[in-house]
Specification:
Elements (H helix, E strand, L loop, with lengths): L3 E4 L2 E4 L4 E7 L8 E7 L6 E6 L6 E3 L7 E5 L5 E6 L8 E8 L12 E2 L3 E6 L1
Parallel strand pairs: 2-11
Antiparallel strand pairs: 1-3, 3-8, 4-5, 4-9, 5-6, 7-8, 9-10, 9-11
Length: about 120
Amino acid sequence: QVQLVESGGGLVQTGGSLRLSCAVAGRTFSRYYMGWFRQAPGQEREFVAVISWTGRTTLYADSVKGRFTISRGIAVNTVSLQMNSLKPEDTAVYYCAANGERFSTDAGAYESWGQGTQVTVSS
């Protein structure tokens, strides 16, 4: 496991934008598949987006496709989630996750998780 440090999030109106960032803390020579998940109150954690360690392959949940963009940072093992055209139903705690083995939309495949950051979209 590695420590993940998240930043970003906050309160925004419907139609607004936010950017989340996540980085693997400390030095590491491993490369990770990195994903974003979210959990709304009373609901299960759900997949949002995933990116391969090369950055060349991405996958999105249907609910965010065309509005959210996941991307690798310049530094190794950093990832961002640009969220545009936000809707009230996007309100949730967003979690960054890292997985050293495979490209996956399954939360169970990820061994490392960030602390979570709140995103609230007001109507």
